[in-house]
Amino acid sequence: MSQSVRGISPDIENLLRAYNLLVATRDDQRALIGVVSRQWLKSESEQLINIADLPAGVLRTVRGRQIVCDALTPDFDANAESLPFDSQWQQLQTSGKSISSNCLAKLEPSIAAEVLLGAMLYGVQKYGNRRRGASAVDNNLIIAAMIRDTIGCTDRYSAVLPGNRTTVDHHIIKALFGQDVARHLLELNSAYDKFLGAYLAGQCQQLKLSRAHANVIAAIEASQLRLVARAAGDEVLSNLDEDKRAELASHGIDCSGDFPERPYLSVYYHRTKAALSIHGVDYGALAEPIEHTLMMAVSDVLEDARKKRRLVGRYGKAVQDVHNNLPLVELFNAADNYNSLGTIHLAALEMMQYLEKGRRKSAGTMIGHSLRIAAVAEQIFGPALEPSVATVAILHDVVEDGSRPVAGYDQSLNKIKNRFGGPLAAMVSELTDAESSVAAAEKARATLDCDQLILPQQQYNFDRFTEMTLQATATYEPYTLCGIVTKLIDTAISEEEGIRDPDVMNGWWKHSGVRIYWSCHVRGKVVRPLLVKLVREIEKHQVAYELSAANYSLLSEGLPADLIESLRRLVSYSIQSSDRYAVQNLAILADEYQLTCAERSRLIAEFFEADIDQDRFLDETINALLHDSKLQQRIDGGDVPSRCYVTLYSKDNDNNPEFNPATLLEYRAAALQRQELSRRLALAEVSLTGVSYPVDEIISLYDLRKAA
Questions:
Q1: Which residues pair with 250 in a beta bridge?
Q2: Number of compact structural domains in the chain
Q3: Is the entire prediction scored with pTM above 0.90?
Q4: What is the Cα–Cα distance from 58 to 103, expressed in whole angstroms?
């Protein structure tokens, strides 16, 4: 956001909408198999795992050996393949070492292929035709290629309850992206059908297609092959548990044998080879980067299965080599083009490369989470959105979650600076968690105490790309407006995930204690000051507008009117999200105490009733409804592990925790504060996608998930 708002172009708007549609329809799909069961998604959700509990087969893979090496020799960068596995295995049995499940190899989300596809085709557009550019591969065609498989899929953001959700069709595509994308989609589907027919007949070299369609089809096949190659190198199918093997068997996929990925690797390899042979495929911008990296490695593996380890490494060589040779990565200067379409494509590629194994505590992927934040920013801000904000939203988790302890990689702020330039890296550093758990809250308080909103261009010299000191969540500097926007939307998306997927949460996150503590004391101490800051700034500009005799478009020292209106929508969106999350958390609390439906409704209503003071709420609601004897029955029945998991008890002593309603009362005070902020701005409900979230539907979804 800047004072002279340029706004996003229609091409960037469509790209962010495409990302959102992909997450809405295909975040539950995986390489090779497509849609997976909810049980599969639950098994992948983020959690800490004792390494000794992992099967030996998982740890004998290339990535598994690296996990063992990192756990046992964290201060020494040894060659994992050279160390004796059997002795390491013995050490692990007594080491007590735990790792994030996001270190473990998994089948990639299918949308990773579409992110890669977009980056490939944008590179052809910009650097094809011997670097003169290939204008026929226009941005609307790229969007059509990326979303081609969303037709017929259910849009999970179209309604709260699964039974009310819509199915994507060509009318929806036209409404979202315009007539040109819809036309491209129909033409592309026809061209792809011709390719499949020619492939089966062995006549791809004689196939007559436009150059644009030839490049799109080659990129589609190559992006799919890349996902299969990673799965083969990581030996994913060989190390699945029995439930996943049974699920794959129902899809016709056989996981037995030493190299179960081989037949699929062969099929995708030969289809990609055929697609690259189509007349019109750009050699320098597409065919050569793929043939000299991915195709050569896969060909070797198909000849000699022992070479499948060539496909992987710490980064996954099948990915790293082909990514680094793409024109967008090799030639595009993001530092000089931080507000461009190409930089957003590059950011999505960077995020996908480092977060491919990452899963949320919900049923979602880290890829989907990051893309969703950027898309919601576009929905809230529209033309007032600076493209760099979308880029930062996509990259906001890539450093901390792409790090060695979390994902087994070594992503860093300096790597982001080298790829994207100092200012964008500095904006990412605002959102990268520091080692101190209170740093973000301190930074938020500094933001509240600051005299005005700080724009990124004011905080970071956008003409100086290398001479910058980067520090995660630097507490001595307030959040810039970009940081505020991303933090608030990030929190809302996390709350949305919790609302939709309470049944997928593991351990502490299934219960009221940690959820309410996170919302009140962890994220809440960041969000509340930022909301108050925005409300003050909006009120200040409203007063300035009322006092201004001139037609208000931009006051001296003010912000554009359309940006102020967007900030109003952001405040409303954040408040509503926190209220919805509170409703579900209260439903969980009610379930822990076996409340009836009527009692649950009373608990929720009185929690949000401003006319009831805290003493009365404690006496007439908490003490009257939440009886310890009923909680004990839930504990005795195994539904609640202990009182420590419940928000009304302290977490300090697992054996005999004390009754302590302070966190719940503070949580309620925060909800009442949100009501006051909403009243001050006279906020109406914001519906970004036409979907309302009434309390009864949130409760119904919780009951549905619990019953399942």
A1: none
A2: 2
A3: yes
A4: 11
